[in-house]
Amino acid sequence: MIGPPGAGKSMLAARLPGILPPLEPAEALELGMIQSVAGGLRNGGLLRERPFRDPHHSASLPALVGGGLRTRPGEISLAHQGVLFLDELPEFNRAALEALRQPLETGRVSVARANSHVTFPARVQLVAAMNPCRCGYLAEPGRACGRAPRCAQEYQARISGPLLDRIDLHIDVPSVSPADLALPPPAESSAEIAGRVAAARARQSARYQKLSPDHRVRTNAEADGELLDEIAAPDPAGRTLLQRAAERLRLSARGYHRVLRVARTLADLEGAATVARHHIAEALSYRRPFHLPDSAGG
Amino acid sequence: MVARVRTVAFSGVEVVDVEAQVTITPGLPAFAVVGLPDKTVAESRERVRSALAALGLSLPSRHITVNLAPADVLKEGSHFDLPIALALLAAMDVLPEDELAGYTALGEVALDGSLTSVAGVLLAALTAAARQSGLICPAACGSEAAWAGEVEIIAAPNLLAIVNHFKGTQLLPPPEPKLAPPRAAGLDFKDSKARRAPSARSKSPRRAVITC
Q1: Are B180 and A48 within 8 A, CB to CB?
Q2: Cβ separation A7–B210 shorter than 8 A
Q3: Which of B144, B171, B138, B175 is closest to B157 using CA atoms?
Q4: Are A266 and B202 an interchain contact pair (Cβ–Cβ within 8 Å)?
Q5: CATH architecture label of B2-180
Q6: What is the DSSP letter of A27?
Q7: Fewer CB atoms inside 10 Å of the end CB: C or N, chain B?
Q8: More confident residue, A151 or A103
């Protein structure tokens, strides 16, 4: 999420846990094991809700990915099966952010130290928020500072391309006009959204129960290779669009597959059996082009 | 005679089998802990000594050696207190050693003999289930251990309760699995004043224009 200060990025993220589906028993046990080792199970009760971790941007590398003197799980493992929210993404330690790259891809983090080699599960949904530039008002006429747009390029360049490539949904959160605040509240509450998410989840687990009898794959995010090609095969119009877009946007191989996954999820949310052209188009619209545009409005 | 109590060490979310062995041999009175203990484990000597005193037992004035086997794995954490104390009690013939053999133990011992909660009880319980042994843990961790399923769990508030349990004078009830209280449902997307994009069908508020 990119937007000026006060646009509601952190507010949105704080509401995310409310729409997440509850943990499956097996997932709860997996998470419980990590929390148990970290000493985080309060009063011995197991969590049924997905974790939501929002470490401060001063977090060190071992605090994020795990390690330290006694090789504890890091924030990314404590957020296993849940959400890791990094507010003010560019302010994070560069090395700590880059260390997230491999776990985001594989869903586990291997911490190798001189006296211990440890693997923690770390399948998280990464949510990050940032301002488009240092002063924060890049895209707003009249409020941007004199150094725009160059300062935006410098500020956004603090986040590496490979990390951005792993983020599927890029959203611009524009700032709020006083008139907007007077609008009536939206009709949809968290509970209704959670219902739709749960329905999509149910569709996914029904599908993977058939296709992956060993329960290795439970969600679209975990589908890979042939399985992904099979479940997310778009219709002919969608395929043409995807191919054209991949060339135009110069999508990486990973980017290509991530678009397929997002499109499959969109189709699940809609209840569609096959991935259609508009799912692909929507998924593509969430991807950020490899080269950052010089304004935040891209 | 060597008294043995099984326990665990943690390496990430993996479990390493560890055995606490205690011998009491003739020699200068001493209490030594070996087997690559870190500072927390080495300090458990003082806690165990004091906890036994709280039970009304004094350590025999002979040479006591505690070994945490395998000796080449670094032992860290305060959860070795309980297995050391139990093995010591077995070596002193306070507890029946053959009955202890069917259990895996972990927990921290306080100076007054009460047991305080430690990290990793769920993992230890799952391991105990795989080994088909029981589990002895602090009462505060009992409900966490109960999630492991078919394991006999002794969740004791203090050392005395364990001694009485094995004597049969006061049996400890098995703990119930417990869920953490649900998160306070305070924050709702309703107060986000999202203007929906016309074709929004996905988790829409995340793509909508936020006005709050």
Answers
A1: yes
A2: yes
A3: B138
A4: yes
A5: 2-Layer Sandwich (3.30)
A6: H
A7: N
A8: A103
Q: Beta strand A52-53 with A83-87: parallel, antiparallel or unpaired?
A: parallel
Distance of CA A193 to the CA centre of its chain: 18
| Contact call for B205 and A116, based on CB within 8 A | no
CB contact under 8 A, A41 and B122: yes
ipTM: 0.75
What does pTM read for this prediction? 0.82
DSSP output for A184-251? PPPS--HHHHHHHHHHHHHHHHHHHHHH-TTS---SGGG--HHHHHHHTPBPHHHHHHHHHHHHHTT-
pLDDT by residue (tens digit) across B10-26?
Answer: 888 889 999 999 999 99
Query: Residue B164: what pLDDT?
Result: 93
Model confidence at B185, in pLDDT bands (50, 70, 90)?
A: low
Residues of chain B numbered 25-54 and touching chain A (CB < 8 Å): none
Is any Cβ of chain B less than 8 angstroms from the Cβ of A282?
Answer: yes
Residues of chain A with CATH 3.40.50: 9-181
Rounded Cα distance, A44 and B143, in Å: 5
Cβ distance B188 to A15 less than 8 Å, yes or no, reads yes
- pLDDT value, residue B61: 93
Q: Is the pLDDT of residue A293 over 50?
A: no
Predicted confidence band of residue B186 (pLDDT cuts 50, 70, 90): low
- Reported as a single tens digit per residue, the pLDDT across A189-225 is 888 888 888 888 888 888 888 877 666 777 888 887 7
CB contact burial A250-282 (16+ within 10 A = b; e otherwise): ebeeebebbbbbbbbbbbbbeeeeebbbbbbbb
Q: Report the top-level CATH class of A9-181.
A: alpha beta
Question: Nearest-CA residue of chain A relative to B148?
Answer: A29
Residue A134 has a pLDDT of 83
- Give the model's confidence band at B192: pLDDT under 50 very low, under 70 low, under 90 confident, else very high: low
Determine, for residues A15 and B122 on separate chains, whether the beta-carbon distance falls below 8 Å: no
Chain A within 8 Å of B183 (Cβ-Cβ)? yes
pLDDT score of A13: 86
Interface of A with B in 132-151 (CB under 8 A): none
Distance to chain A for B76, nearest Cα, Å: 8
Check if the beta carbon of residue B36 is closer than 8 Å to that of residue B98. Answer: no
How confident is the prediction for chain A on average, in pLDDT?
83
Structure-derived torsion over alpha carbons of residues A4, A9, A11, A13, reported in degrees to the nearest 10: -170
From chain B residues 60-119, the ones with a CB under 8 A of any chain A CB are 74, 76-77, 117-119
Q: Please tell me the distance from the alpha carbon of residue B6 to that of residue A153, in angstroms, as a whole number.
A: 59
CB contacts < 8 A, A to B, total 175
